[in-house]
Amino acid sequence: MPQMTLVEAVRDALRLELRRDPRVMLLGLDIGRLGGVFRATDGLQAEFGAERVVDMPLAEAAIVGASIGLAVAGFVPVAEIQFLGFTHQAFHQIGPQVGRWRQRSRGRFSAPLVIRAPFGGGIRSPEFHSDAIEAQFVQTPGIKVVMPASPYDAKGLLLEAIRDPDPVLFCEPDRLYRLHRQEVPAGEYTIPFGQARTVREGDDVTLVAWSAAVELCERAAAQLDGEGIAATVLDLRTLVPLDVEGLVRAATRTGRVVVVHEAPLSAGFGAEVAATIQEEAFFALDGPVRRVAAWDAPYPSAALEASYLPTVARVVAAARAAVRS
Amino acid sequence: MTASPRRLAVLSMTGRLRRGQRPSLDDAQVREGLELMLLSRLFDARATTLQRLGRWGVHSPVEGQEAAVVGACLAVDPGRDWLVPQYREFPAYIHHGMPLAGIAAFFTGHPAQGRIPDGVRMLPIQVAIAAQLPHAAGLAWGLRRQGGGAVVLAYCGDGATSEGDFHEACNLAGRMQAPVVFLVQNNGWAISTPRSLQSATPSLALRALGYGFPGVRVDGNDLLAVHQATATAVARARAGEGPTLIEADTYRYSFHNTTDNPAAYADPVELAAARRQDPIERVRRYLTQRGAWDPAREAAVRERLTATLDAAVNAAARLPPPGPDECFDDIYARPPARLLRQRAGHGAPSEA
Fold first, then answer.
1. 3-state DSSP of chain A
2. pLDDT tier at B352 (50, 70, 90 boundaries)?
3. Which of A253, B87, B259, B336 has its C-alpha lying 20 to 30 A from B148's C-alpha?
4. Residue A129 is a catalytic residue
5. How many A-B residue pairs are in contact by the CB < 8 A criterion?
């Protein structure tokens, strides 16, 4: 089985879908001649042509809005927004337009499109490039929000996203793009949405995360292991749909939960996780659900990001406190 | 500063063809246009009354702009081309195949009954100003890729041209040589904001220059001028020559919508002048002079249209109220389990 990085797994999924389905087309900034700023689409324009792998004018709202029109014309658009933080300039086309497309037309039209967006901190990028704003899209019904954390998941979830009849926001953790290699099957496989992944099992505390924060929790769990604290790490994989059962099962197993995300604390998706657990499994808890998140501050300059993002030390401290409670 | 483009006009207010102009529609087609315009004005009056009675929702009348809407939609083929509305184009929806009963049902709060039927090539009305224009550009681009020569007619207003989506859509359409006609109804107003406060450009049609395609200006109260300009633009688009921007100068007689009060801002002198340019009266005079229209004929048409409208309004009034779970319909093809639980009557587990 081939070893792939996360960005190679993304590219592999895109290539397979372009080969399989002539309706699939990619559109975005710099995705053709350059192959994308992260090279996620490297070589795809050469293989599939400039009509199917399209270098777009620099206009995020038009990339998303045109994808709706292309879908009406019978295509399956996979749009790349260069960074999730640039969706600020397309938000009015994503939340209110893509999200409501099916319902506004009462099922006459659908938007079987994917919006891919690299995001997240830790790569010392300029302003807006690191914004973790995934929770904003959970508040816009009609869109599925997918947050892979590993090469295997990135490929399987992206294949699922392109084939899903609903619009999908597919957030790719740029910090993990080339961090690890993992065995990834060469052929097609899909991972269903709404099924959380147990990354590791332990009976003392449950760490809940998605995307790059999963990697952080894995490092925290390894450190906790050395202290004699056995942690379960649960990767939600998709925020919409949310695997409520899997979340409750993981919370109930240990009775102690820490949810970790790179987005700011207040009204981050961690709040939804905490609320869901206390509603569904209150009497199985040994203490409050704890949250480790970025501060309620705009994403800072590169020199400050290490103190802005959640750290292994903070996750470990929260887990220790949870176990003591 | 670039001069404002010459404004195409075909019909004088007395209903005569201007010097050197020939009609791009035959008399039967102009009659069809006039009937649509008459239906539109009847619908505006009815919808306004029903809104005042609390039976219908908010309505944005077309009144005064009928030629701008109808002249354009007569230039596209409902069997082949796509219509991308804003929301002030009622007669175009009818011409393109949208059933009157569905529109009436929509206004009574039955959006599901207002579904655009399969086969009607029209996108849903768009309340977010200019948000439909990137969709139109993408649709036209996709249709070009499909082959077949289909064209998109996208409507917006003068206010929409200030939006970023207008710019992004026009720029993309030009770049992709997308077969789309952007029809700007310049009715002088964005709610209370006059065209003069919208932009310093002497003509909205000039904007096209920056996108690399033609921009033309027409008398938007002249059915034949709007049709001629749109037909030319449609022919260009079909031939693979790309988009056209048309600015149709017209005037909104009435309120922005039924919640608005133009008495607070509109100039009665300006309005009276606009009413002297009435688009329906102009076509009526044109056809009458050609022996293709007379009061008896109009009376018969009005009677027929009123009966059609009555039937649609009454049918909508008889619909049972929508079920409380209708708000869950058609959000997703594959709804999340959590949503299905809410549909079954359960809020958050902590609610009860």
1. CCEECHHHHHHHHHHHHHHHCCCEEEEECCCCCCCCCCCCCCCHHHHHCCCCEEECCCCHHHHHHHHHHHHHCCCEEEEECCCHHHHHHHHHHHHHHHCCHHHHCCCCCCCCCEEEEEECCCCCCCCCCCCCCHHHHHCCCCCEEECCCCHHHHHHHHHHHHHCCCCEEEEEEHHHCCCCCEECCCCCCCCCCCCCEEEECCCCEEEEECCHHHHHHHHHHHHHHHCCCCEEEEECCEEECCCHHHHHHHHHHHCCEEEEEEEECCCCHHHHHHHHHHHHHHHHCCCCCEEEEECCCCCCCHHHHHHHCCCHHHHHHHHHHHHHC
2. low
3. B87
4. yes
5. 143
